[in-house]
Amino acid sequence: MGVIPLLVNLLHHHVIEVQRNACGALRNMIYGRSNDDAKIIVRNCGGVSSLTHVLNNTEDHEMRELISGVLWNLSSCDVLKTPIADSAIPVLVSRIVLRYVNMLEPDRFALPSTGSMEFGGSHTDMTTSEFTIDNHWTTLFVNATGC
Predict the structure, then answer these.
(1) Which SS3 state, helix, strand or coil, does residue 126 take?
(2) Which of 25, 91, 113, 143 could serve as a FRET partner for 81 with CA atoms 20 to 30 Å apart?
(3) How far is CA 53 from the centre of its chain?
């Protein structure tokens, strides 16, 4: 379990492949209810806030999918539900859920005319013209709503 703080630190590495590998390793280490101790370690070393920060600042599809999967795995631990709700849910909603809903029903979900939205105190680009609904977005939506 001593590797978890190192993996959390690597989430901020300047090379995206390092970030992906660290996130994937975290996802695997905390999968399942039998790994709640590892989930607590992730939280205690700032993992929830690191994951949230990276999710809010990346446009890398694979990284978003990995992060949303880690957050979903973390959310299966009862003591982490509140920290995830406080920190990650606003970002998951603004960066994933709202974009997905807007792609499904663009006329029903009106975005502000500026193309951006203030949510949870952070500015999030909500332009969806470059996005298509594919397996990536479906997986992201499932992961995000699973939290």
Answers:
(1) coil
(2) 25
(3) 9
